[in-house]
Amino acid sequence: MARRQTTARRYAEAAFQIGREERTLDTWERDLGVLRQALAIPELRKVLEHPALAYARKEALLRRVLPSVSDGPMNLALLMVRRGRPGALDPMVDRFEELLRRERGVVLAEVRSARALDDELREQVAQRLRALTGDDVEIIEVVDESLIGGMAVRIGDQLYDASVRSRLQRLRARLTA
Fold first, then answer.
1. Is this prediction's pTM over 0.85?
2. Closest C-alpha to 132, from 155, 116, 104, 105
3. What is the model's pLDDT at position 6?
4. Range(s) for CATH 3.40.30 in the chain?
5. CATH topology for 105-176?
6. How many other C-beta atoms lie within 10 A of the C-beta of residue 64?
7. Ranges of residues in the chain whose predicted pLDDT is under 70
8. Is 2-102 a CATH 1.10.520.20 domain?
9. CATH 1.10.520.20-classified regions of the chain
10. What is the pLDDT of residue 2?
11. What value, to the nearest 5°, has the Cα angle with vertex 80 and ends 30 and 3?
12. Mind listing the pLDDT tens digit for each residue in 129-141?
């Protein structure tokens, strides 16, 4: 798993550098997103990961399934398949998106709440997080009923936990101490 992450990181950083130099980061973002969607199809992923199938067949299939993907992202995907690393494609796209967010001054915040956020609350949370980080914020919402109420926000390696569950756990710890 660590090797897959290292491989994915190297490929993503190379793709990002190429996109930055050629001023085609938006194209790379779009095409890597299309590639990720295609790889979500189990049959296609199985074919690309099958060691007994010839590379030429895999290349022909990928080019036929994804005719709109530009040369750079397609060649990167084919290189990874040729080198026996199709499993690193998803983490590579994740790392590319992370680099792109950093370039654009956007942080990723995972917001866990007991219920889905309505539009007004989502905007309030986004504004609060923008003030806290000084950056634009991209929110990923996760509904976690075990929180009971409130929310927990993770930005990078920082956790802001204002959930009822954590308050009850702290109260229990104080009472038993």
1. no
2. 155
3. 86
4. 105-176
5. Glutaredoxin (3.40.30)
6. 8
7. 1-4
8. yes
9. 2-102
10. 60
11. 110
12. 999 888 999 999 9
